[in-house]
Amino acid sequence: MPIGRYVIAGLLTAAAVSGLLLLIRPLLFSLAGPRDDTNYTVASAAAANEGPMLVELVLNERHELLGEVHRGEQTGLTVVVAPVGTTAYSVVGAWSPTNDCALSLGADRLRDCEGDAWTFDGVPLDPADPHLQAFPTRVSNGAVLVDFTRPISGPAT
User: How far are the Cα atoms of 7, 98, 133, 141 from residue 118, in angstroms, in the given order?
Assistant: First the structure.
């Protein structure tokens, strides 16, 4: 007989927890930021602090950004996330504006398929070359957030 009580108590507990989750879930989503390309998490600040990294993303919409890749309904973009100082980060497109090819991550710079080079925050090493496409960034709750709807000219900050 005691086993039956434990089963009933377990079922009542599970029902209470499920009911509580159903009440809390809408509250959690109402407090969360929008899930669109104006508020896109690209990396944790801790990971970005380890040094520049290439990050492949799937965007929510097409923006006709330099280097955007379209596969059916999906839009992909590769960016470089790099620390700038101790609390700021730059995010630039990983696509060459001079030679229309992907950038590779070197020890101290970004390079394209023809050898043109940029700093990790998108500044060209040859002043005749254009800056890389950069995006506004901010840090919130330990995450690097980017607005892909407003590319900026010049170095990212």
Answer: 65, 11, 11, 30
